[in-house]
Amino acid sequence: MGAGDEIAPRFTQKPSLKQEDNGKKLVFSCALEASPKPEINWFRGTTPLQESDRIKMQVENTSGNTYNVLMNITGVTQADGGSYKVVAKNKLGETVSFY
């Protein structure tokens, strides 16, 4: 696969969820491959999440067409419980992973 090839997003590493700081911080992470760079959206249930003082989102290009995708939630409370999903999409398609 050459550098100029376009590919729909696909996960290359199984998504993981870790608790840190005695359960007060959640770290969601996954790795994916895509070209062009995918748009990333996070959801709790069906509600889109936005960055805030408590929620930080990051997409870092690790090499070529591969990306590490992270979301950290700090100050976790019972209200943060539920199912989460990440959606990665570009003009060629999209992929979804659930937590």
From TrEMBL:
**Domain Ig-like positions:** 9-97
Question: Looking at the Swiss-Prot or TrEMBL record, what is one Pfam family this protein matches?
Answer: I-set
Q: Which InterPro entries match?
A: Ig-like_dom (IPR007110), Ig-like_dom_sf (IPR036179), Ig-like_fold (IPR013783), Ig_I-set (IPR013098)
Write down the SUPFAM superfamilies for this protein, in alphabetical order. Immunoglobulin
Quote one Gene Ontology molecular function term.
protein kinase activity
Residue stretches spanning the membrane: none
The name on file for this protein is Ig-like domain-containing protein
